[in-house]
Amino acid sequence: MEIIFATQNAHKISEVQSILGDGYTIVSPERLGFNGEIPEEASTLEGNAFQKARFIHKMFNLPCFADDTGLEVKALNGAPGVYSARYAGEGKNSEDNIAKLLNELSDKDNRDARFRCVIAYIDRLGAEHLFEGIVNGQILFEKQGAEGFGYDPVFCPEGFHISFAQMSLVEKNLISHRGRAVNKFVTFLSQYSTDI
Ligand code: ITT
């Protein structure tokens, strides 16, 4: 079954496709001919996930899901959170975001953090569903590893001594925020007919 993932992030597509397996084929908006920006202007992860999913659902009138993810750091009162992608400012990249994060934490003792992933799904009937996944961990003092994307090089999940960027995609998926949210989503899909 084909399912649209309202994202412009190829890393997310790889991670989610790996969990979904052969039963579902992810189709990106780009593959359907949409190359524009998908708006995300809400002040919560839930709001952004629904905004992205609704935008693409409206365009193609097909079942569609979106993922909005934030890194929530305790000593920074939950920042960067919903602003994780633009933490260092518009037009900045993950390197800049990580540099800002490490700088903000340089005088803090507490490096507790968590990734929170919210998946919004709009089914064939237009009904809306939400799935959440969380992984707790710590922000490292410097980048480690080259796998993954975003903040992965500085995030060490609880119970591990390596960063997400030192794990394979399959290893990260087993414990990650996205892996947990997608597993709930898959369970939901499998309990309903393939029409939904
Ligand atoms: P789409 O909105 O097109 O899906 P995006 O990259 O803008 O892609 P988000 O708004 O959800 O996605 O991402 C917020 C930020 O958090 C962004 O800087 C990502 O690089 C980062 N991020 C998201 N998931 C991550 C993960 O699994 N590991 C590390 N960083 C992640």
Notes on the structure:
The chain is α/β, with parallel strands linked by helices. It has one domain: Maf protein (Alpha-Beta Complex), CATH 3.90.950. The protein has helices at residues 10-20, 45-60, 94-104, 169-175, 177-191, and strands at residues 2-5, 25-27, 64-73, 80-81, 112-122, 128-139, 155-157. Strands 1, 2, 3, 4, 5, 6 and 7 form a 7-stranded mixed beta sheet that branches. Strand 3 and strand 4 form a beta hairpin. Helix 1 packs across helix 5 and helix 4 (169-175) crosses helix 5 (177-191). The longest helix is centred in the first third of the chain and has 16 residues, at 45-60. The N and C termini lie close together (11 Å).
Overall average pLDDT: 96
- Model regions low in confidence, pLDDT < 50 over at least 5 residues: none
Beta-strand level of the residues, as a percent range? 15-25%
CATH topology: Maf protein
Measured as a percent range, the helix fraction is 25-40%
Listing every helix as H and every strand as E from the N terminus to the C terminus, the arrangement reads EHEHEEHEEEHH
Q: For this structure, what is the CATH class?
A: Alpha Beta
Give the class from helix and strand content and strand pairing: alpha/beta
* Radius of gyration over all CA atoms, rounded: 17 Å
Number of domains: 1
Which architecture name does CATH use?
Alpha-Beta Complex
